[in-house]
């Protein structure tokens, strides 16, 4: 069992298995990579030693300690349960691979794979109503350095509903100004998608490209959004820009105080506003690049006011409502008069 080299096993897992056999997305690959970086750093701190980490060191008690540390807000990373489950999924996949290829590790593989996912509460979808969106975007000062880039980025985010990595990966060559559309390159769903762009979005991008875009370094000539170093904005850079203006907007819009605003909030906002406009669910699915309509359908249940509007469109027959109304009792005189009239 000890003869299995951890580095060799990880190299095969990330190379021949994840990339060649499963063809996972770059984002999934990065997520799995981060899981193992965090795990190995945790093991090194726990062992307080520079000696090589063996596969057999990664037993159930250690993995459980690692997962607990991920959630611990005091001495750990304070991650959400969903993040804890993502890390566990990466580890379970790796140990499944080990069980297939190394018979001596089959028992350990089964033990690790038996660690259950933790049930997490369904997160509320935080999205912006039109007034909140207007206030957030109005926080951009276009007279400042990179201000117009940020304005173009926020408008582009709302128009496309793109993920932060997809925004960071957007290429200038992917924008078709004549046909008013953009090609969003393969992201989580591993499929390119073409989306329409508003004239306002196109104008903002044109002004940004012509006047305000920083000079990119040679490897980033075709990248749309450039940072101060002349490189491509990373997905973390995109998130920081959104969070910066969200923080400023909270001071002017009390309803934003209770919302966790992120790049995904813009994505949710795009979906909800498309839904409000009467766009069909399958169209929204394709717009957002969801692999399954199940991912899109959660927007239907996201807002109580939308449910109330739906309820107003149907209801019990009118005779049911009228039968429930309290009618005044007839007097004896009224009954006698009625009988006389027969």
Task: List its salient traits.
342 residues; mainly alpha; DNA polymerase, domain 1; 2 domains; three-stranded antiparallel sheet; 16 helices; 3 strands; 55% helix
Description:
- The protein is an all-alpha fold and 342 residues long.
- It is 55% helix and 3% strand.
- The chain has helices at residues 6-21, 26-47, 60-71, 81-101, 106-113, 130-137, 147-160, 164-169, 199-212, 235-250, 263-276, 281-288, 293-297, 304-312, 318-323, 332-340; strands at residues 175-176, 181-184, 193-196.
- Strands 1-2-3 form a 3-stranded antiparallel beta sheet.
- The chain is extended and about 110 Å long.
CATH class identity of the largest domain: Mainly Alpha
Please tell me the total number of domains.
2
Strand content: under 5%
Query: Any idea what the CATH superfamily of the largest domain is called?
Result: Intergrase catalytic core
**What does the largest sheet look like?**
3 strands, antiparallel
Q: What global shape is seen?
A: extended
Number of helices: 16
Strand order of the largest sheet: 1-2-3
Which sequence of SSEs, written as H and E, runs from N to C? HHHHHHHHEEEHHHHHHHH
Secondary structure category: mainly alpha
How would you state the average pLDDT, rounded? 87
Low-confidence stretches: none
CATH fold label of the largest domain? hpI Integrase, Chain A
Binned, the helix content reads 40-55%
Number of strands: 3
What's the alpha carbon Rg, rounded to whole Å?
28 Å
What is the straight-line distance between the termini? 103 Å
Q: What's the CATH architecture name of the largest domain?
A: Orthogonal Bundle
